[in-house]
Amino acid sequence: MKRIMAWIIIFCTVIVTVLPGGSKAEAYTITEKGGMRTASELSEAAIKVLDEVSVTDKAMLDDVIKRSYENDFRNKTYIIKNEGEDIDTTYWRQYVYSQGDFRVSLNWSVDKCVAVTGDYHYYTVRMGSRVSISPFDYATSTIDRWDEYMDVIRDVENRIGILNADLCDYQKIQLAYTWIKQNVKYGYASDVSGQHVSGGQEPIEAILYGYAVCGGYTRVFNRFMHDCGIKSYYLSNVSHAFNFVRLDGKHYKTDCQVGTVDCYEGYEQYNKNGKLLWELNRALVGTTKKISSELFEYSAITHYDTEFEHGSVDNCVMGPLAEITEPTCTTDGTFLKEGKVDEHCDYCGKIHSFTLPATHTYKTVENKLPTCTEEGEIKKVCSECGNEKTEKVAIKPHDYKIDTADSDYDTEGWFKIVCNTCGKVYYEEYRDKLERPTQSETETTTTEESVTTPAYQESDLEKKDRGYGIITWYDAEKEDWFCKQGQFEMSMKREISGNGAYTDGLWVECGTLDKGRLYDKQAGKWVNAGDSVDCYFDVDSRTWKIYMKYYTEEPQATTTAPEEEVTTTSPATEETETVKPTQSATTVKVNPTTEKPQTPTTRKPQVTTKKPQTKKPAKPKQMKFKSAKNDKKKRISLKWKKVNGATKYQIKWVLGRGKKAKTKTKSFKGKTTSCAFKRLKKGKTYKVYIRAYNKSGWGKWSRAKKVRIKK
Question: pTM of the prediction?
Answer without folding.
Answer: 0.61
